[in-house]
Structures are given as structure tokens and as C-alpha cells.
Sequence to fold (178 residues):
Amino acid sequence: MDGDRFSPEHRSQALRRELAPGGELLVGYVGRLAAEKHLELLEPVTLLPGVRVVIVGDGPARKALEHRMPQATFRGELRGADLSAAYASLDLFVHTGANETFCQSVQEALAAGVPAVAPAAGGPLDLVKDGQTGLLVRPDDPARAGHRGECAGRRPDQARPVRRRHPRVGAAPDLVVG
Fold:
């Protein structure tokens, strides 16, 4: 893992203003857009008020996903500084594939200081500390986090903190999920 490339230091307020001009919560996915990734599970999240879904990547399912989720922003494949900024500028990373063994994208999101919601299966079990660095959810419904607390503290009376962690910046509660 490249700790310099994937770091909270790459968070971009300009990119956040572009993607969420009304200050919406940015929920994102980074990876290959293919059927086995089950990105259709993000569709309910795209319909939540106050939430913007950003999908970074490309693949054979892109056109179908764009048609199915017109409210989502599709950024295509990004590399280098653009990819670093995309990760670090998210409020919440959601990984929808339940058959991942290594789960590079979850590792990159966590290194960028972004809490991750991922299936309680495979690689994410070793990466996400449930309730601390993110949430582990049923493998068939990782988008469920979008409904818990109406995605990140819209109902603070029912929310608990999920901490962003990074070796250089420590832990600070800045995202709550009910």
C-alpha cells in the first residue's frame, strides 16, 4: 500500500464542491464496473436526500449502471493524483462485491482516511474494524449503510461515530452512522 498516494492529505475541497455543490454526503465506489461487483446494490443510496453517489472506474457494466443509476456521478477510470483525491474526498466508501479476497479498494479507502462499508465476507473481514473504521454488512446488502441513520448522521440522536484512521493523522470522529 502506498501510504503517500492514499492519504487524507489528498482531500480536495474543490473536488468536493464539484461533486456535492450543496454540501451533500459523498458516498463512493472505486473499482472495476462488472456484474460480479454487484454495484446495483448502490441504487437505493442514489435516491437518498442529501447524498451523492460517485462511482470511479470503468468496465463492461458501465453503460447499464449509468442507465440504472442516473443520479450517480460516473467519473471513469482515474489514476495518480486524480485517484488519490477521489478517494480522500469521499465521506464514505462502499464496496459491494462479496467475493473479494484481497480487496485493494477497501485498503486504499482506509489508507485515505475514509470509513468503508463492505460485505462481512472475504478480504473486508480482515480490513474493516466494524464500528471503528467502517461497517461490515450482510454480503447481499452492503448499500444498507445508506439507510442506517439516513447515511451519516442525518439523525444524530440515533447515530454512533465511525472514526477515520490514518497513521499520520490519528483518529478523529468525523462521520456518524446510525
About this structure: Helices lie at 13-19, 43-46, 62-68, 80-88, 104-111, 124-127. The radius of gyration is 15 Å. Residues 146-178 have pLDDT under 50 and may be disordered. The first strand starts at residue 25 and ends at 30.
